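Researcher: Good morning. I'm working through a list of sequences from a screen, and I'd like to move beyond sequence-only analysis. For each chain I'm collecting a predicted structure so we can compare shapes side by side. This is the next one on the list. No need for commentary yet; just the structure.
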Amino acid sequence: WTYRPPRYDDTSQSQYGLLCLWAAYQMGMEIPVEAVEQAAIWHVRTQYSGGGWSYRPPLNLDPTPVTDSRHTQITHSMSVAGAGSLYVCYHLLGFAPEEQETDSNLPPALTKVVGAEEQQGRALQPQTVTRATLTPAISPANGWFANNLNFETKWWTHYYMYGLERYMSFRELVERKPEKEPDWYNQGVEFLRRTQRSDGSWQT
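Model: Good morning. Structure tokens for this chain:
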């Protein structure tokens, strides 16, 4: 996805296209599986070898002239956009582990059985993309953040923080590994406290 008129695809707009599809699907609307699969493949192809993303694809994929050199550099804001979008695709295409519903009123030895009719439509039926298509891209993306998670970024810091929350939320949704006190969240709170101006605002 990108702006109109389309000149090139970009990682920033694509995250919202996928987020819209995900939100629509959660509300019971029909969405085209082909769009999700094409977006998944695009994000795999545009990921840099180190695990991050830029605003625009690498020049060997997009020969359109670049007017802003920042657009082809790996940034925190676009890396969270790319990684978060991959997790959205992963979830929509049904590659996440099945969700097990628990009932606190049941003894530990018992689990709630969900009927087949309740499970229908919980995920799209992929035609071309498999779990093996996305996993090799998700692993280095998580590795990139393991090595680069900080809030002293050069550009678009608060946009990055907004995307980081979405990336981590979808990662938790897919991996089923919730954290009570996520370190990234606490670091972000401390950064906002430290950088808030006396009038209550923040510098962009």
